[in-house]
Amino acid sequence: MADILVPVLGESVTEATIAKWTKKSGETVKKDEILVELETDKVSLEVASPSDGVLQILVGEGETVTPGVVLGTVGGAGAAVAAPAAKPAAAAPAAAPAAAPAGTPASGNLIEVKTPVMGESVAEGTISTWSKKAGDAVKKDEVLVEIETDKVAVEVSAPADGVLVEIVAANGATVTPGQTIARISTDGKAAVVAAAPAAAPAAAPAAAASADKPLSPAVQRIVSETGLDPNSVSGTGKDGRITKGDALAALSTPAPAATAPVPVAAAAAPVAPRATGPREERVKMTRLRQTIARRLKESQNTAAQLTTFNEVDMTTVMALRNTYKDAFEKRHGVKLGFMSFFAKAVVAALKDIPAVNAEIDGTDIIYKNHYDLGIAVGTEKGLVVPVLRDVDTLSLAGIEKGIAALGKQARDGTLTIDQLQGGTFTITNGGIYGSLMSTPILNMPQVGILGMHNIVQRPMVVNGQIVARPMMYLALSYDHRIVDGKEAVTFLVRIKEGLEDPQRFILDV
Prior knowledge:
By secondary structure, the protein is of the alpha+beta class. It folds into 4 domains: 90 residues, CATH 2.40.50.100; 107 residues, CATH 2.40.50.100; 43 residues, no CATH class; 219 residues, 2-Layer Sandwich (Chloramphenicol Acetyltransferase), CATH 3.30.559.10. 21% of the residues lie in helices and 26% in strands. Helix 2 runs parallel beside helix 3. The longest helix is centred in the middle third of the chain and has 18 residues. The radius of gyration is 28 Å and the shape is elongated.
């Protein structure tokens, strides 16, 4: 007998609500068949059967559960498992086709292609583009499809040589780890099934949810963010409860013409997209771009953001770099840039002003005694911030090598989830694009971000004389909830001092 457990829901997600069971107690189920849908305040998750057998449900729909809780059991596996599989779940997402061929190839010559695990805090992704179509021959390890998540793009390869006989999840479908997205025949005998069409919203049943019915965390979030009236949504869940899919379908469907006067609140409801003109083009935002937009706005809405400025004379650093760049590259195999100097200066400043290396957790402050710097990298798909770990222990060469490797991975799209999480402070360099001054937005939950800018020759007064100096403006955006103005200004002064007198790095003063 195998237990059906609530999976890990993500770093910041501690509970979920059981939205719908696709099977009943006593029914026969197959391994990897979707049994239950869980809703969190961020995403919907599907939990599959751990083995063949008979289902026993222990926790009913509408109940709140936490990771590791036993939802039910599967035991007493029998031979006649394929029969129930022909009936699809009513609430299954786009990846569950209505056609029966999903259960036909019991011969063992049909291999399922599944969505891989995409990271601890990534619960779903979107099918981007299939590089093959149904009926095409494929080779083992050949890339079949790219799945976009809110952080990285994940490539899914063929597990064996054969023929791609069925694409279960079409372009644009939302999928979860472990979900079947295609099937490959290794003997070429299976019939080719047409690619699954893009999912349409499920037909709404007659039972409308009323205001006194409890809303799951995911539905509550949609209602609060969009102003959706739950009384206008027909629920497909138990006892007419509204599921996340119901809420999203209601948002995507234009409201019918009403004969009664429209309330003021309804006037602010989302409207259908405007028509584009002949000289316009409508392109759907990628998941990465949607996430960038959402998180930047969340950062503005959450933190008390303020930016302070200073300027640094880059004469000494530039002279040092010009003197040793050839010997440095010959010895270490990497070019000597400015980022390593800035990283060293930032770490020294963070040690002096620990509040800038902290994090707010409710009513507590978490002071971090490690220095993992996020380095913002612009890519064709958008901005990503990979993290360079334990910068305080690295040499200038180690920092330059680490930044170069992360930048290459970012541009190639091969960053992992772990490489994008856990930073304590971020550096962004708009100067490489010619920016003279900016006010960077915090990378939450961090409370500080340093903006570097273009180096410009400007007239400066040095020892009573006007001379041309290579100057750079520095910008520190910080969370005023825990970083005071004095600390922010002092932090920038420490960076200025370190860059104008790099010997401080060597002497640790």
